[in-house]
Amino acid sequence: MNSEFTEKERLILANQYQILAELAELRDNKSDAEAYRKANKVFYYGYSEKYQDTDILGYFEDDNSKISKQGQVEVWDLLKMYDYLIHHYEEAKKEYPDLKEIQFIGYDANDDEEHVKMNYMRFIFEEENLFKNVKEKFSTGNNSINSHGSTIIHESMLKTYLNMSRDNTLYDNPDLNVKNILESK
User: Fold this and answer.
1) Diameter of the chain by CA atoms?
2) CA pseudo-torsion sign 170, 172, 176, 180
3) Are 43 and 59 in contact (CB under 8 A)?
4) 116-161 pLDDT tens trace
């Protein structure tokens, strides 16, 4: 953290912390509101020795609400896999009549790491307005973006899909590939 801020930068930070404190208060989150108020005072009055205070800024250092670059790539790959399955499923079903249905398994909102991936998936669906066909499938039947449990099924499917993609065999035999992805263990 920069120990030297201009007066303008300090005012901006102080105002931001004031806003965050008020928002936290509205959400009835007293501990965050208190930390934000403290940060507001530190920056407003220029208490530069306190800029490094972990009570003030530690909240952001270990922020579990941020998704890693690898997590973002995983979500994109998962959505591309589901998109691939949707586009090729009907033809594969003709070739393999006993082909099991596609299970649209998102992420577990009760797991911190998966929760941020689920939020990113929602962002892609709702803010970016992408993968409309996949979004629609996630909201039908027993499918849900919040899997409320194990994501092992989609992890094994994704691993198979990525191997095919990496080997450039994804489109060699889509019917068989859909079957292999859906039967991944």
Assistant:
1) 72
2) negative
3) no
4) 899 999 989 988 999 999 999 988 777 778 877 677 778 999 999 9
